[in-house]
Amino acid sequence: MTITDAIHQAVLKVPASAWTPAVEPDGDIRDGAWVTELAGDCLKGWPKGLRLILRKERPHPGAQLRFTDPDGMRLTCFATNTASEAITALELRHRQRAPAEDRIRAARATGLRNLPLHDAAQNQIWLEIVQIALDLLAWMPLLALTGQARLWEPRRLRLRLFSTAAQLVTTGRRRILRLAGHWPWTDVITDALDRLHTLPNPG
Fold it and tell me: Where is the Transposase DDE domain (predicted)?
């Protein structure tokens, strides 16, 4: 039996009374989410002191369940060697870590996967450029984008927004950005520019 199978079998044997409601950062109960800690045979051969924390949660609308997710609940688990924390606190800490992992993934997709230059000083400049790009990618969805576009990752942003063909025209002392009307995401770009123009000038 594989580790995954052992964990899955252990999950099916967890009684309803063993599940504790998950919590939000403000201490309120997280709606539709519960946590528990697995022990016993499924941890045989694991390092001593390692804890296996399990979360079950009602999936958001449209989410795809796996056939191993029982009762329509999305199951996830993680291991930790933190011994003194309650399982609700450990699960909250792990969940709050998710945005950091998203930033790391975005950094890899923005140029941090490889250092392209030979000299350390040159690569340091490259890292600074990547950091500037990441800052722009972090602020742009908050300030300029709405709806599902806020969730787009770097590759999708490059395809739909950053690589859009356009023409910059100067006329009557004005600069006009002409976008192709047939481009499916032209309205996303124009709406984003309009939102940026309405922001207060910090100067």
Answer: 2-200
- Nearest CA to 78 out of 22, 38, 29 is that of 38
Measured in degrees and rounded to the nearest 5, phi and psi for residue 175 equal -105, 125
> Nearest Cα to 185, choosing from 167, 165, 155?
165
**Within 10 A of 79 (CB to CB), how many other CB atoms are there?**
13
For the chain, what are the domain ranges?
3-96, 99-197
Per-residue pLDDT tens digits for 184-193: 999 999 999 9
Buried b (16+ CB within 10 A) or exposed e, 153-176: ebeebeebbeebeeeeeeeeeeee
Angle at 82 between CA 48 and CA 10, to 5 degrees: 60
pTM, to two decimals: 0.55
